[in-house]
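re: the backbone from monday

yeah here it is again, tokenized this time
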């Protein structure tokens, strides 16, 4: 029950556009398995200023988010591939394809697709380290929708990898 309360509180904070929300370092990731396309459809919501800080740190120059910038698209794709990984078998990272991003108030939605080349899954390993290089208190909530059932988990700096079984 405590996890559900924390989850609801974080959702409210991410939905808010007030400045105090940055006292909390959190992201929401929605993962949906699509058996028809044999892929994972992934949407990650992060605060814009936190994302800009992460991209600036990685590129060693000031980055301002712009969804139409080819440079930003490349940086986002690279950042997601390095910090959000999916595996069907431990040690075999699945390639992901950056789809795009869009700004929403003070946050950015980032979209990637991960081909799994299977019509069903027995397990899925997720490593989620988005923004943990910046914030020790970063919380990354993952909601995984598999066959109509949602599996939720909290990822933090000291616990970035989890296994889901179906």
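seq for it, each position gets an aa:
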């Amino acid at each position: 029950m405590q996890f559900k309360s924390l989850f609801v509180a974080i959702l409210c904070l991410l939905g808010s556009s007030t400045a105090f929300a940055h006292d909390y370092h959190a992201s929401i990731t929605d993962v949906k398995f699509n058996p028809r396309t044999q892929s994972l459809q992934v949407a990650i919501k992060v605060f814009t200023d936190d994302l800009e800080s992460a991209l600036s740190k990685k590129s060693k120059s000031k980055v301002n988010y712009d969804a139409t910038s080819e440079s930003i698209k490349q940086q986002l794709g690279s950042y997601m591939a390095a910090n959000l990984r999916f595996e069907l078998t431990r040690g075999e990272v699945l390639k992901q394809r950056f789809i795009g991003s869009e700004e929403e108030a003070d946050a950015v939605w980032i979209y990637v697709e991960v081909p799994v080349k299977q019509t069903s899954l027995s397990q899925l390993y997720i490593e989620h380290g988005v923004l943990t290089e910046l914030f020790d208190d970063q919380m990354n909530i993952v909601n995984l929708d598999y066959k109509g059932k949602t599996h939720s988990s909290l990822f933090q700096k000291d616990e970035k990898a989890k296994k889901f079984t179906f």
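The CA atoms of residues 71 and 106 lie 21 Å apart. Residues 2-15 form the longest helix (14 residues).
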